[in-house]
Amino acid sequence: MKSKIVLLFFVTMLIASCDSNSAFDEYLALPNSTWSKTNTIQFTFPVTDSIGKKNLYINLRNNKDYEYSNLFLITQMDFPDGQIIVDTLEYDMADVTGKFLGQGFSDIKENKLFYKEKITFPRTGNYTFKVRQAMRKNGEIEGIEELKGITHVGFRIEKTQ
Question: How far is Cα 66 from Cα 62, in angstroms, rounded to an integer?
Fold first, then answer.
């Protein structure tokens, strides 16, 4: 009897934790919590709905080893027909006092960063989203080879209401 109650509790929690707005949600862990300048993170996802609007997010988890208040990213979206869209993006990672933004009570903060808002995918098929870090120190031309403190990079697609 007790095991049935425990099982029912876990099944209820699993169902309650499902996110009906999510169309795609995936994370990749970075080795040694370091994002190499040459490490392009890639997510491939199917699109079956070319009518409904979606919000696209870049999800990042960082720890206390992240040394900067912002983050520069270069993204690339590859369409099934060969079209490619490239963007350079900047996000705030800390407030003016140096406190990290994002959710979390521990040393790890999770940031849900808007990438595209209320877009429709023009055609069905497999799309590929690529992202790489493009950080550099002030006054320097060369980028930071090893960006410390980023533990995970994710990509999320949500259906809009």
Answer: 6
Phi (first) and psi of residue 139, to 5 degrees? 80, 0
The stretches in the chain having pLDDT less than 50 are 6-17
The residue type of 53 is K
d(CA 19, CA 70): 29
pTM: 0.84
CA distance 50 to 28: 26
Read out DSSP for the chain?
-HHHHHHHHHHHHHHHH--TTEEEEEEEEPGGGEEETT--EEEEEEE--SSS-EEEEEEEEE-TT---SEEEEEEEEE-TTS-EEEEEEEEE-B-TTSPBPSB-SSS-EEEEEEEEEEE--SS-EEEEEEEEE----TT-SSPPSEEETEEEEEEEEEE--
Q: CA-to-CA distance for 1 and 23, rounded, in angstroms?
A: 37
CB 45, CB 126: distance < 8 Å? yes
How high is the pLDDT of residue 97? 87
Phi, psi values for residue 9, rounded to 5°: -60, -45
69: tokens are: 């208040």
